[in-house]
Design a protein that fits this description.
The chain is an alpha/beta fold. The protein has a single domain, classed as Uracil-DNA Glycosylase, subunit E (3-Layer(aba) Sandwich), CATH 3.40.470.10. It has helices spanning about 1-5, 10-25, 60-65, 70-85, 120-135, 150-160, 195-200, 205-220; strands spanning about 40-45, 50-55, 105-110, 145, 175, 190. The protein has a six-stranded mixed β-sheet with strand order 1-3-2-4-6-5, with helices on both faces. Helix 5 (about 120-135) packs across helix 6 (about 150-160). The radius of gyration is 16 Å and the shape is globular. The model has no long low-confidence stretch (mean pLDDT about 95).
């Protein structure tokens, strides 16, 4: 499935933008070989935790080829995953840095970096089957963490295509929706502010808040 994702050219606007960013580069990374393609999920398909983000960062995952890797959002996320025992190290710099996820899988509702970090509804709809396939390939899944409103809405729409419908739920930070609030066959759902620079620089989301949320996710996993 990763190969199918990586070679996707379905959305002209996104293809043009991701390749333009990869050609022009940020000055700090002018010697880097940018990935410039769609970014697949990363982690263990036998994991019990799925983390869903928005889309690759222009000079993060669009550069490194691994989700939430090489930018400030990734620094926040992997620190929290490390503190909760899901990641082997607290930083994620590049695909060959030795990062290993344990009992966790990270993905996104969009696979290509969008201009201004704003994918269109049609672009998200085009990407949705990839998230659906990843979801279906995780038979042990117990907890989903949605990073941001768009990821939250994308997850809700994705499970809807599988026949799971549930009442409209509000989005906020650290809200917990157990299966009883969604559908008995679905995992626990935790909502979280996205670790974007806009949120972390303003203090809307702090490292402690994110660490606590993933410790909460750890606590929801069944004993094995």
């Amino acid at each position: 499935m990763n190969e199918t994702i990586i070679t996707c050219r379905a959305c002209t606007r996104l293809v043009e933008w991701r390749e333009q960013v990869a050609r022009e580069k940020r000055r700090a990374y002018r010697d880097s070989d940018y990935w410039g393609r769609p970014v697949p999920g990363f982690g263990d398909h036998q994991a019990r935790l799925m983390v869903i983000g928005l889309a690759p960062g222009a000079h993060g995952a669009n550069r490194t080829g691994r989700v939430f890797t090489g930018d400030g959002s990734g620094d926040f996320l992997y620190e929290a995953l490390y503190e909760a025992g899901f990641a082997s190290q607290p930083t994620s710099r590049h695909r060959g840095d030795g990062m290993v996820l344990t009992d966790a899988f990270i993905t996104a509702v969009g696979r290509c970096v969008p201009p201004a970090n704003k994918p269109t509804a049609d672009e998200l709809n085009t990407c949705r089957p990839y998230l659906t396939q990843e979801f279906q390939l995780m038979p042990q899944l117990e907890v989903v963490v949605a990073l941001g409103q768009i990821a939250f809405d994308g997850y809700r729409r994705m499970v809807g295509t599988l026949g799971y419908t549930f009442p409209r739920l509000k989005f906020g930070h650290a809200l917990h929706y157990p299966p009883a609030a969604t559908h008995p066959a679905l995992p626990h759902l935790l909502t979280c502010y996205h670790p974007s620079r806009q949120n972390t620089n303003t203090g809307r989301l702090t490292q402690t808040m994110l660490n606590d949320l993933f410790k909460q996710a750890r606590g929801l996993l069944s004993d094995i």
